[in-house]
Design a protein that fits this description.
Elements: H1 2-8, E1 13-17, E2 22-24, E3 32-38, E4 41-47, E5 50-57, E6 62-63, H2 66-71, E7 78-81, E8 85-91, H3 92-97, H4 102-128, H5 131-141, H6 143-148, H7 151-158, H8 162-176
Antiparallel strand pairs: 1-8, 2-7, 3-6, 3-8, 4-5, 4-7
Helix pairs in contact: 5-8
């Protein structure tokens, strides 16, 4: 695997982004694939006057708008850094060029499929779990989000207000004392 990365290392461009830097905006047609070497980012869409967070990305994650790349259509979501990030990006055209080297392409694709599966699991929790259950699941399975993501984005991700999140957190703290 290392030799494949080395073979295509020249196609990856490094970028150091500050916190709260827009990677791409809803409605854009992004044509890059981003790999987070260090830092955290979020994906969200706008609903009226609210941002609805639906995914968080950390070290080793890949961010890209697959539908936009495949169909050259506007993306339905935005992505921005939450922390200062060191990222590497590659153009979609370069990714297409290396598609013939299945191991590297599939490694990137596997990361994307994993993120999409994670999104679907999160989506189904809205159908079957209460907000408290969603928060407890986050505590248990994704503690990094609790440690690194601002509360307003966590509340949005859970589909609740910050006030509701504060109440849930207070109840959870009392139950553990």
């Amino acid at each position: 695997m290392v030799s494949l990365w080395a073979k295509y290392k020249h196609l990856w461009q490094r970028a150091d982004l500050p916190a709260r830097c827009l990677i791409f905006r809803e409605g854009d047609i992004p044509q890059k694939v981003y790999f987070i070497k260090q830092g955290a980012a979020r994906a969200w869409f706008n609903h009226g006057d609210k941002d609805i967070c639906f995914q968080f990305f950390f070290e080793g994650d890949v961010i890209y708008a697959s539908e936009s790349i495949r169909k050259k259509a506007p993306t339905p979501f935005s992505a921005e850094t939450l922390e200062a990030c060191q990222i590497y990006w590659m153009s979609a055209a370069d990714l297409e060029k290396i598609r013939q080297d299945a191991p590297l392409y599939h490694l990137i694709l596997d990361k994307v499929v994993e993120r999409q599966s994670e999104f679907l699991r999160h989506f189904f929790t809205f159908l079957k779990d209460s907000p408290r259950q969603r928060y407890e699941d986050l505590l248990k399975n994704k503690p990094e989000i609790i440690r690194r993501v601002p509360l307003q984005y966590i509340a949005s991700y859970l589909g609740i207000t910050q006030v509701s999140l504060s109440r849930i957190r207070a109840r959870n703290t009392k139950g553990r004392i």
